[in-house]
Amino acid sequence: MAGQQFYLYRIRAESKKREELFKIVTENAADMIALVDVKGNRLYNSPAYKRVLGYSPAELGETSAFEQIHPDDRLKVLEAAQLARATGVGRKLEYRIRHKNGVWRILESTASTICNENGEVTKLVIVNRDVTERKQAEEQAAYNSLHDGLTGLPNRRLFLERLQNLFDRAHRSPEHQYALLVADLDGFKAFNDTMGPAAGDHVVVEIGRRIGACLRDEDLVSRPQNDAGTRHSVLSRLGGDEFTILLERISDPSDAMRVGQRILGAVSALLLVEGRELRTSVSVGIALSTPEHTRAEELLQEADMAMRRAKALGGGRCEVFDEAMHARAVNRLRLEAELREAMEKSQFRLYYQPVFNLKTGQIQEFETLLRWQHPQQGLISPQKFMAVAEDRGLLVSIGQWVLVQACRQLQAWRTEFYELEHLGISVNLSAGQWADPELFNSVTAALVRTGIEPPLLHLEIAEKIAASNTKLTLNVLANLKRLGVAVVLDNFGTANLSLVELSQFPLEGLKIARFLIGEMMTDRKAGDAVDLILLVAEKLKLKVIAEGLENAKQRDRLRKTGCNLG
């Protein structure tokens, strides 16, 4: 019995000694040491918690061990604790914890286990080290390795990484076209030699700021976000006075040229350096991606060559690497400017093509045709400017003008010629007008202003546009039908509109595509397509108009197969 008591005494003494040693170590350690049970309840927190995180033992005792951990990191910490309990081995991990002042700190943590006599884990000893400053230094070093120290912009290394990513994406998806612009200050070396490097640095920083400020979100390549949610700019500084800009979603060289011209304008504004007003300029070289490029660096070389050509031509200008492409870009920009001028100076003209009853030869209605009376080039067909006008958002305004003028002309004819009172007029709508939420109001306003009865106005929409968004088409057609305006599906036979969709559309009629009418006498398939359209229209009780009739043979064939209008 005495031996057993002595043994228990020794165990208690050793346990007390270990506890005292644990207390001495933990209370003097720089690291935060915590003891928690298997349910995560705090049993002990070392004094370092107060020094590092600001919490007193009493404050920590009122909350669980997970209370101050960042919500996004709690699962990670919980999984590590479960693994330690299951295996008896802890692993090192990093997580964020909230300081008493609300700031998030980063801890590096290791857990070890305490087991009972049966080998079961009953407690966890967790050693936490505050590594916030170290992590911030590492992140700053990583940031510095990818960013220019003077301007804070991405440097050559980060730029080349992004250029390579775009190159790889374009090779996976050939339809993905992008552009690279290289902008270089004109006469910067002479300025730097005269004014000194400090003034030169000031100019470089200001030019970088101006270029970044004139870039729009729609111009730019998709940009990653860091933890703070701020975006990295696609504008980069390669070194010296040379900047690059990556542009995504380029559909035409003029898209890149337009950005280049904004840069020229932004840089040319007066600049104040050391009390002196200066006017600067840049030369911009543009290169567009093509499937023929085999390396990402080729695009940079081409943009650099285009920039040097801009300098050789006097500077303060944009040049595209490919001369033919450059000419197309310049021509498109000129066309955009001339289109705006055409609207301001009323250069558009309307012509009216009669739609005949093929059986009686009488005129049933007039189709409105838009032409541009160009001061130098004469009469221009819409096919030559429609895409540019649509792309630049001009076609909706032009279309509204056409609508009002056509209704006004019809009313003038009806007033002057009594026999034309029954005639209607058709006006073609663009994709932009069709999707315009104000279409219903625009049509209503045109009818009210001109006094035309709604049934006399026939609106035409291309089958391709109607088929691209059937939900939108159904909604627009329902509104126009409520107004009493008829809608005809134009260029029918050129899109993949299903018969089910066609039967659901409240339409007045179909207009057979011009190319089918032109080929139906010589091409059996075209002739069969025309016959099929007429059959479908008959079943759906839709009128049919043949577009592009040129001779009596075409008229007679259509008349025999049931087409009454052309």
Q: Span between N and C termini?
A: 122 Å
Q: What is the CATH-assigned architecture of the largest domain?
A: Alpha-Beta Barrel
CATH superfamily placement of the largest domain: EAL domain
Mean pLDDT: 83
Radius of gyration computed on alpha carbons: 38 Å
3D architecture notes:
The protein is α/β, with parallel strands linked by helices and 566 residues long. It is 47% helix and 22% strand. It folds into three domains: 117 residues, Beta-Lactamase; 190 residues, Alpha-Beta Plaits (2-Layer Sandwich), CATH 3.30.70; 215 residues, EAL domain (TIM Barrel, Alpha-Beta Barrel), CATH 3.20.20. Strands 13, 14, 15, 16, 17, 18, 19 and 20 form an eight-stranded mixed sheet that branches. Helix 10 links the parallel strand 11 and strand 12. The termini are far apart. About 2% of the residues have low confidence.
In short:
This protein is α/β, with parallel strands linked by helices. 47% of the residues lie in helices and 22% in strands.
List the helices and strands and how they pair.
Blueprint lengths: L1 H27 L3 E6 L4 E4 L2 H6 L3 H5 L12 H14 L5 E6 L5 E12 L5 E10 L1 H15 L9 H17 L6 E7 L2 H8 L1 H18 L20 E5 L2 E6 L5 H16 L1 E4 L2 E4 L2 E7 L7 H17 L5 E3 L2 H22 L3 E9 L6 E12 L3 E3 L5 H6 L3 H22 L7 E5 L2 H5 L3 H12 L6 E6 H6 L1 H14 L2 E7 L6 H6 L4 E4 L1 H6 L4 H17 L2 E4 L5 H9 L6
Parallel strand pairs: 11-12, 14-16, 16-17, 17-18, 18-19, 19-20
Antiparallel strand pairs: 1-2, 1-5, 3-4, 4-5, 6-8, 6-11, 7-8, 9-10, 13-14, 14-15
Helix pairs in contact: 7-8, 8-9, 9-11, 13-15
